[in-house]
Amino acid sequence: MDAGAIEVYASCTHPVLSGPAIERIANSAIKQLVVTDSIQLPPEKQIDKVKQISVGPLIGDAIKRIHENKPVSPLFHNRFHGNE
């Protein structure tokens, strides 16, 4: 924000958020922290600034593709380039 940012977003894969992490996030300039549901996020860590998204469909698609001996790389291209 000091360098002129209008909004600050952050992300993490496994939201352990140990110690004072939630308090620090709540008091920070971060507008939204996007986390996955790769581990359970306890209710006390579910604050307005934290948005949890599911990786279940992605993992399910990957398992199916591996089982069918198909490449998994298209899963990532489609998800990150808007070609679903």
Tell me about this structure.
The protein has about 80 residues and is α/β, with parallel strands linked by helices. It has three helices and three strands. The chain has a three-stranded parallel sheet, with no helix packed on it. Helix 1 links the parallel strand 1 (about 10) and strand 2. The longest helix is centred in the C-terminal third of the chain and has 12 residues, at about 55-65. It is elongated. The termini are far apart.
Which structural class best describes the helix and strand composition?
alpha/beta
Measured between the Cα atoms of the first and last residue, the distance is 34 Å
Oligomer: single chain
Mean pLDDT: 90
> What are the secondary-structure elements, in order, as H or E?
EHEEHH
Give unreliable regions as ranges. none
The coarse overall form would be elongated
